[in-house]
User: What shape does this take?
Amino acid sequence: MRILRKANLFRSVLAIGMTCAVFGMSAPTMAAAASQGRAVLFTAAGPAEAQQKAVAIAVGDSHSCLLTADSVVECWGSDLNGQLGDGQSGPAAFSTSPVQVSGLVSPTAIAAGGNFTCALQADGTVMCWGNNTYGQLGTLEPGINITTPVSVANLTNATAIVAGLAHACALANGNVYCWGRNDYGEIGAGYTCQGSNHCTYPTPSQVSGLSGVTAIAAGGYHTCALVYGFVECWGRNFYGEIGNGAHGANVLTPTYATGLGGATAIVAGAFHTCALTSESGVQCWGSDANGQIGDNLLSPNAMALAPTDVMSMTSGITAIVRGGNHSCTITSSGGARCWGSNSDGQLGIGTDTNPVEPIAVDVSGLSSGVVALSAGPLSNQHTCALLWTGGVKCWGSNVYGQLGYGGPGGEVTDSYVPIDVEGFAIPIYVTYMPLILAETSQP
Assistant: This one.
C-alpha cells in the first residue's frame, strides 16, 4: 500500500524537541509544531540590534574584558588604574557592566593582567592601558597610569599577547618579546633587581635563546614558551613553577620543564604552570598549597617540582586556563571543569563552603557549549566563560563588579555559579520553517 511519511528531518526535530525545553520552548510546543509540518530550527541569537556576540574573553586581577564580533573591546570591574580604558581611574571608579574601550583599530585578541589590559591589532601592533608602575604598558615612561590605549613601543608583527601580574609579552616571528616588571627575571633579560629598586623594562626586550615559539604564557611572576612541543620557563621559581625539578632560586633565562614533551598549549598562574599534552591530558607543576596542581596532595607547603598528571584529566581535554590559585579546563564535550582555590566561589560549584577542591569538579550549568575560559592572575578571584552562542558568563568574586552584573538592586555580590554578563546573555531563539513531506511506497 501507499502511505505518506514525513521526511527524516521531522523525526530528528521531534526527537530533539522532546528533550530541549532549555532552549526556550516547551517540549509539547515543539511536538505540536512538528506535527503541523513545521521544522524547529535553533539559532544562536535574536535580532541583531538587540544582541551582542563575544568572540574572546580576558580576565584580570579585578576586571574582565571581551572582544565582540564587531571588533570592539569592552571591559568591566575595577577601574582603579584605568584598566577599563574609558578614561577614568581612581579608588571609586568601577563598572558593573561592560564599557567600550576607545582608540583601538581592528583588535583581534585581548589580554588582561593585574591591573592593566592589552589588545593585539590586525596590523600586528599592540595597545595597552591601565597600571604602568613597572612599565607594563610598553611605553617610555613607567610609573604613570594611562586610562586610554597607548601603543607598545618598537613592536611589530605580533601574533599573540599575554599579560601577567605586572609584565606582558608578545609573540612575533617565532620570537618572544617581554616588558614590564622584572623583579624575578620574568622578562627573560638574564638578570634582575629586587627590593625597592625594581628592575623595569618599559619597552619590549627579546628573550634570548628562543626561536620557533608557537605559544606563550605569563603568570604572576614567571613566563613560559611552547617550543616544538617542549615547555621552557623563566622567572620566579620559589614554588617550582619553572618545572625544572628544583625550587627557590629565580631562573633568569628559558629553562626546560623536566620530562615534558608533546605539549600543545600552556598557561601560567600566580605560582603554578600547566600544559595540555598531545594525549589531550593536563599536567601541572609549582605550588599546590590550594590544590591547583590537581593531584589531591594538598598541604600548606605542597609543591610539584616537575610536570604532574592532573587527576581525572589525562584525556578528553581541549583547552586549559590558569587562575591565580586555581585551574580550569574545557572537555571534549564543551563542558567546564575547575580545581584549586574556591575561596570566592571561583570554581563555580554553587558554594564556597569548601575553600579548596584538589580534584577537578564540574562548573555548575556548563556541561556543554563552552569554547573559551579565562581567570585572573593573582587575587580577587573570578572566572569567565565564552559560550558557542557568543554569550559570556562569569562567577566568583564580584567586589568590583568584575562579574559584569550588579545584582537586582545594583548591589555588588559574589556569585558561586555562572551568571550572564550584562548585554551578553545570548538566548537560543526558535524559528519555524515548512516541513517537506516525502511520499514513499511501502508494501
Summary: The longest strand covers residues 94-100. The chain is about 5% helix and 45% strand. The two ends are 5 Å apart (CA to CA).
